[in-house]
Design brief:
Length: 292
């Protein structure tokens, strides 16, 4: 059933193109252009990272992307893929847990070198950051107590809905992320009469539902399908994908104009060719969600 749902998620892929240009004339302009080129080279993220031999990744904890297993090993699809990229580039990968709502501040202040944690690509994020090629499909899921599914799905008016602060789920609910052609049901309209409360993370959003302090949560389907159901800590909860709030794709974010973006993209493409990405994805049940 999960594989069937995953295949449905792969039905739509949004492709966008960004372009920019500038020109100057005269000797003075040529001199300024040369100085600017030199400045960019001096501020190369890749040169700095390769010199120190390590890259710091900002992330939050949620399965199946970055999390601790039963033996307290730090694992996950993004964790293993990032480490494979590090090996390919000859650098060490450091992971730092961040507040997701402050991710761009952490990035631009150079506390981290990139955001690699199941981040959905949006137009706003593309304007503010340099983002890799998409690598995984996603959509937004509703999670609630299994014994309340029929009741909640019939009418969410007056109910408490939660999502991770700064997440795509929150953006869909408050309308800060505009609906596109992949949307069948507008989350902003759907939850217009519900009470919204933000959570610190997707995992905490699920905990709010489990404890009863929230009636339902809107989280990434990739997260929901991995963390909810029989054999999990949330076996009394259920994932509902009946409402298509739109398709998304995961990407890795770097500082605007960073040359590190191309380096990581090249490494991932090589890992695809070697079959490594498929191998890691299969380990976490994500092979049908890969963007190829």
């Amino acid at each position: 059933m999960k594989k069937f749902i995953a295949m449905l998620l792969c039905a739509v892929m949004c492709v966008s193109t960004l372009a920019g240009c500038g020109s100057s004339t005269g000797n003075e302009a040529d001199s300024s252009e040369a100085q600017a080129t030199e400045a960019v080279a001096t501020e190369s993220d890749w040169e700095e990272i390769s010199a120190k031999g390590e890259m710091t990744i900002g992330m939050t904890l949620f399965a199946p992307m970055n999390y601790y297993d039963e033996d307290n090993n730090f694992v996950g699809f993004d964790t293993e893929l990032a480490n494979a990229v590090g090996e390919k580039l000859g650098i060490k990968i450091n992971f730092i847990e961040i507040n997701w709502d402050s991710k761009e501040i952490e990035l631009n202040s150079k506390n981290i070198d990139c955001i690699w944690n199941g981040m959905c690509i949006t137009e706003e994020r593309k304007q503010n950051m340099s983002i890799s090629e998409p690598y995984l499909y996603n959509t937004q899921a509703i999670v609630m107590k299994a014994d309340r599914e029929d009741e909640i799905m019939s009418d969410v008016s007056g109910l408490t809905v939660t999502a991770e602060q700064g997440s795509t789920g929150e953006g869909k609910i408050d309308g800060s992320i505009e609906d596109d052609e992949t949307v069948e049901v507008s989350a902003k309209d759907y939850f217009a009469n519900a009470n919204y409360v933000a959570s610190d993370s997707m995992a905490k959003a699920l905990m709010e539902v489990k404890s009863g302090t929230a009636d339902l949560a809107v989280v990434d389907s990739v997260c929901a399908l991995a963390m909810v159901g029989p054999g999990t800590d949330y076996e009394d909860l259920v994932v509902n994908l009946d409402n298509n709030f739109g398709q998304q794709e995961y990407g890795i974010a770097f500082r605007k104009g960073s040359d590190l973006t191309e380096k990581v993209d090249e490494a991932i493409n090589e890992l695809y060719e070697e079959g490594k990405v498929d191998e890691i994805a299969a380990k976490y049940g994500l092979e049908d969600m890969l963007v190829k």
